[in-house]
């Protein structure tokens, strides 16, 4: 199915774009890890969202996602791994499927922090961002998983069914019952070690030998997402209409720059959608 617009990310910017798309009767797909605004959900109290003071971040995100889903948006609870431009559309690859849309709005949130040392050089050489894609390569082996996503627990269990041992570094509460071969590790990951292939993970608590390492994040470094996407530092470069360097692709919210505020993200989500709608009219199939 060819959608008019694919929205990458289900935080305030993505939900706002989706609601506006529904009002414009555009065929819209929203892709998110399933955590929907994870950064905002961690906020215990938000005092400056207009009209809704004294709400927790989780309460606000629940309201945003309920509004977005009630508008009839098609939601795919999977992370977008890559986007490939075609002549008049884009392919968006997830761990489960590939989707096609005429235009894309990027609202993945900010890519907090830098890649681990050694990550870029060893990506695809024992380092992976996709358990479904690459888990079978490590059947019967020892692997590591570094994640900040509660929704990634399903992938941890999937990997545990393949690997001999899973060493897990996670910064969220874990279920009490875990597969017997999952070991929760101490320390903060610092550096991936290996000559031509990942062989170990150096952390603040020591070095752990591994056959492979899975990095399951809410947002990966943005320059990996789409060929030709230009950045300004850690942010996606956009013009006054929130258009990126790739024709037909727009960006909004934290990924498009400071300030990291809910009001700004929601407003940009709407503006990016209106810009994308204009682009679609000017570039018919």
Automatic annotation (TrEMBL):
Q: Which domain of life is it from?
A: Bacteria
* Molecular function, one GO term: oxidoreductase activity
- Name of the featured protein: Thioredoxin reductase (NADPH)
SUPFAM superfamilies membership: FAD/NAD(P)-binding domain (SSF51905)
| Keywords, comma-separated and alphabetical | Flavoprotein, Oxidoreductase
> What is the native source organism of this protein?
Acidaminococcus fermentans
Q: List the InterPro entries hit by this protein, alphabetically.
A: FAD/NAD-bd_sf, FAD/NAD-binding_dom, Ferredoxin-NADP_redctase_2
Q: Does the keyword Oxidoreductase apply?
A: yes
Domain FAD/NAD(P)-binding spans what residues? 3-269
Mind telling me which Pfam families this protein's record contains?
A: Pyr_redox_2
